[in-house]
Amino acid sequence: MTAWEGLAHGFGVALQADVLIYCLLGVTLGTFIGVLPGIGAMAAISLLLPITFYISPEAALVMLAGVYYGAQYGGAVASILLRLPGTPQSAVTTLDGYPMARQGRAGVALFVSMVSSFAGSMLGIVVLVVLAGWLSQVATAFRAADYAAMMVLGLVAASTIGSDRPAKAFAMVTLGLILGCVGTDVNSGAQRFTFGQSELMDGINLVALAMGLFGVAEVIGNIRNAERHAAPERVTFRQMMPTRDDLRRMPGATLRGTGLGSFFGALPGTGSTLSSFLSYALERRIARHPERFGNGAVEGVAGPEAANNAAAITAFVPTLTLGIPGDPIMALMLGALVIHGIQPGPEMLTARPDMFWGLVVSFGIGNLLLLILNLPLIGIWVSMLRIPFRFLYPAILIFVCLGVYSVRGSAFDIATVAVVGVVGYLLALARFSPALLLLGFVLGPLIETNLRRAMLISRGDPMVFLERPIACGFVIASAALILLSIWRRRIAADSH
Amino acid sequence: MKQQLIGTGNIAGVGATITRRAALAAAAAFALTTPAFAQEWPTGPVHVYVGFPAGSSPDLLARIITEPLAEKLGQPVVVENKPGAGGVIGVQQMLAAADDGHSFGTTINGPLTTAGRMMPDLGYDVATDIQPVALIATSPLVLAVSGTSEVADLASFIDLAKAEPGALAYGSVGQGSGAHLTAELFNNAAGIEMLHVPFTAYAEVTTSIIGGEIDAGFMAPSAALPHVAGGKMKMLGVTSAEPFAQIPDVPVIAGNAGLPADFKAELWNAFIAPAGTDPAIVERLNTEVNAILSDAEVQKKLLDMGWQAAGGSAEDLAARITEDTEMWGAVIDKVGAAQ
């Protein structure tokens, strides 16, 4: 079956009334759970799972997928308005989205994020259709050494974002790496820093950490400093419209973000968080005036949002072409297929083309629905800023607690949020960047596991990082980046 | 987990409402012949704690049992997902819940057998805190290699491993996991040496085997099966005593290629209660679970997921726990995986 026949076939599946309705249901729910801090796609999908027993497998998969990528749209809303990332992927959107909101440009920031999200998703679908075969080969060609080297590059590239002092940035990344060590050591099974708490055996909960560092810390900060945001009385369509300057800056950032997101999304286990950080780092590095970043640069919203949405689409590549779920949420979706007696695997594309193409077409329809749904909602979201703090902030705290609890039903995680919130407030007072801590926390365990696995398989020979072309390429790129930034600093110091 | 409670409560509740009248009639009939508890228990929703997230294999298995159980008990049966620490958190939470005869659990073998050896503090003592109810299902593991591997069968695999000790690497889903301990048991029985490379999920092990990074792995049959059809993987042997119904063509390892005839390694899933639960309730649950497991459709659903329906008395399960704790304990001692 050629791609065109496949697409035609896919329209036949995705335009069935019930599939369409479940698609709308999925993306709507996805948007809202994305907006609500802490409640992620994982919790929403496990909540919907029982419903899928009673609907057709196509409708079930389309709905669950809709929640998955719909959450990426919603995630940016609270990041921009309240500096409270709805999902860990959109944490980096706070860096420039929130300053934009403070400048009274919340409507523009939301508009930019929606349009970039849409463009990222749509281009991601094209990548999925055209390059799925190639991407799945890349995914199986990657070995532990390659992953480790790639993550190191990610860490080096993104480790200076959101902070102008290298020492402070370094401190935050390191703290993140250290917190990432908590939990069971994969290689030996030893317990590290768990203090006998079985809740810590699987590590500190990522959602609890993100919500504490951003959400709770922000709430505490505003108790002390409770002046009102510059919220417009009413958002007109004109106030949502980007300026000509914004429009000039957007397309490039969106395209570059999409490229990064499409690639990293397709690799199992790396996903959209890394790609949104990398996109931000890239935009800042190539900008003529990097000092604009952190003060409401449009590229800082457009790039990462395009990246995490494109990644949410190409994340389906290993799942659909290899039958290997790239993250736990994908595994959950495959579980929904198993309930219907469909064995997901590499044969699915040939054995159930209706499923594959129906899903691909539903991505397009779903994203169109998301755009139509979200643009009119912008005015409503911005008007949330008019809610007095004494109502808004307690409500946020309640949603944060609910969201964190929804991850795995653990009261321990709520206590974690409270502690991390206080620490996050102190860090914010001293102007440390919580985004970098999160980056270290996400990448640290991945680097460690892959580095040690690579060394284990090579029987202790570190040359594996230079002998494999992919790994070697990443190592050289990392070294070049470090040298480049030292050189730039020299030049800057000399010119003073 | 609030949403979980509502969501899963509904699904079990659907069955409960449809057949409420039938259940009442059944209860009335029971009242004539059984002791007082049957009229009173269950007086409210029954909670079944599962130590894995919704949608995972242990969770789907639990739901296959809890759905008909809700009909039989005439009360909603709510699955409470409390994931973490390889299923241990689920057992801990079951024990922490109010012990009013309405909190139970289903768990994989780990938290009842090997976890006590792997973790410094389990928070419970299997012998004194857990009341076994019934074995639900068992699952063997298969020895899988890449489809492009030159190895054709178990004998040639062992020959290859013997040719250069330690040269072959195998993947598992973690230190002390069933996949790890089974492989070590196999190493010992076959007299070979392989390098252990721990991963965290079968998806990663699969990628690594297919990509040629590692050579082999003991895997759940349903994790390997999808890749066998397309020629990406080969299954060399199965660890159960008899050929496994989901993969009838795969030879048993026991007695094959010079391995002992009693070689056997099975994972299982069981229904448990907190110790001190009314023996009459345990008896009733055991009866119901066995009745559910004797249904051909339930057996098929389980088999599609790679589980063989088991059943039996509470004492059988207790014996299985003791037996496996000893057997795996010996393996853990040998590889030094314990704390």
Q: Could you write a compact summary of the structure shown?
A:
Chain A has 496 residues and is mainly alpha-helical.
Report on the structure:
The complex is a heterodimer of chains A (496) and B (339). With 496 residues, chain A is an all-alpha fold. Chain A has one domain. Chain A has helices at residues 3-14, 17-35, 41-52, 57-82, 94-102, 106-141, 144-158, 166-180, 206-224, 237-240, 244-266, 271-286, 299-314, 316-322, 328-339, 348-351, 353-383, 389-408, 411-429, 434-457, 464-467, 469-495; strands at residues 183-184, 191-192. Chain A has a two-stranded antiparallel sheet with strand order 1-2. The longest helix of chain A is centred in the N-terminal third of the chain and has 36 residues, at 106-141. Chain A is globular and about 65 Å long. The mean pLDDT of chain A is 85. Chain B is an alpha/beta fold. Chain B folds into 2 domains: 2-139 and 266-335, D-Maltodextrin-Binding Protein, domain 2, CATH 3.40.190.150; 142-238, D-Maltodextrin-Binding Protein, domain 2. Chain B contains 15 helices and 11 strands. Chain B has helices at residues 2-18, 20-33, 37-40, 57-73, 88-96, 110-113, 115-118, 126-129, 154-163, 178-190, 202-210, 221-229, 279-293, 296-304, 314-335; strands at residues 46-50, 77-81, 103-108, 130-140, 142-146, 169-172, 195-198, 216-219, 233-238, 266-274, 308-309. In chain B, strands 2-1-3-10-4-11 form a 6-stranded mixed sheet, with helices on both faces. Chain B has a 5-stranded mixed sheet with strand order 7-6-8-5-9. In chain B, strand 1, helix 4 (57-73) and strand 2 form a beta-alpha-beta unit. In chain B, helix 1 crosses helix 4 (57-73) and helix 4 (57-73) packs across helix 13. The longest helix of chain B is centred in the last third of the chain and has 22 residues, at 314-335. Chain B starts with a helix and ends with a helix. Chains A and B meet through helix 3, helix 6, helix 15, helix 18 and helix 20 of A and helix 1, helix 4, helix 5, strand 7 and helix 11 of B.
